[in-house]
Amino acid sequence: MDFSYRTCISNHTEESDAKEGLRLAVEGRRLSYRDERIEAGTFASDVSGAVFPDRNDAQVIYDNPSWGQLTYRFAETEGGRNRILVHSGRGGVLIGSHLMDSGVHARWLAFYDRYANRRLATASEAAARPRPPQDAWTP
User: Fold this and answer.
1) CB neighbours of 67 closer than 8 A, spacing ≥ 6?
2) Domain boundaries, the chain
3) Could you tell me which of 25, 65, 114, 137 has the fewest CB atoms within 10 Å of its CB?
4) Which of 4, 34, 21 lies closest to 88 in space, CA to CA?
5) Which residues sit opposite 12 in a β-bridge?
C-alpha cells in the first residue's frame, strides 16, 4: 500500500470525498456516543469486553450496517456519491471535506440517527474487523 504524501493529498475519489464529508457531518454524534458510554459506566469494548484505560483508546465502530454499508445506502437515496458535494475550506484552511448542501446534510443526519448501529472497540479490534460488501445491507 502506498501512503505517500502525494497519494494522501491527491488520490480523491467520489467515494472517498463523500465518505469524508459524511463522516465529518456526524463527528459530534460519534464523540457524544463515546462520552455517553463513559457517563453510563459501560466504557468497555463491545467486541472483547476490555475496559478502556482512556477515552482516546475507544474506537467507535458500526455494526450491521457497517460504515461502508451505511454511507453506500445513503448515497443511493441521493442518486449516487457524485450527488454528495463537498468542499475543503472554500479557499480557507480546512482539513477534511464538508457537505456543501444543507438539505443533504439534514437528510444524512436523519438517516444516520435512524440506522447507525454504533459500538466501541479497541483500535486493533476495529482494524481487524472484516469489511462486508457495501450492498449487503438494506434499510
Assistant:
1) 19, 23, 61
2) 5-133
3) 114
4) 21
5) none
Q: Which residues of 7-21 are buried (b: 16+ CB within 10 A; e: fewer)?
A: eeeeeeeebebbbbb
- Partners of 90 in the β-ladder: none
User: Alpha-carbon distance 93 to 38, whole Å?
Assistant: 33
Q: What are the tens digits of pLDDT across the range 1-44?
A: 444 444 455 566 777 778 888 999 999 999 999 999 999 999 99
**Angle, nearest 10°, between helix axes 102-115 and 14-25?**
70
User: How many CB atoms are located within 10 Å of the residue 112 CB?
Assistant: 19
pTM of this prediction?
Answer: 0.83
CB 135 within 8 Å of CB 72 = yes
User: Which residue in this structure is represented by grid cell 479557499?
Assistant: 91
Distance CA 113, CA 92 (A): 30
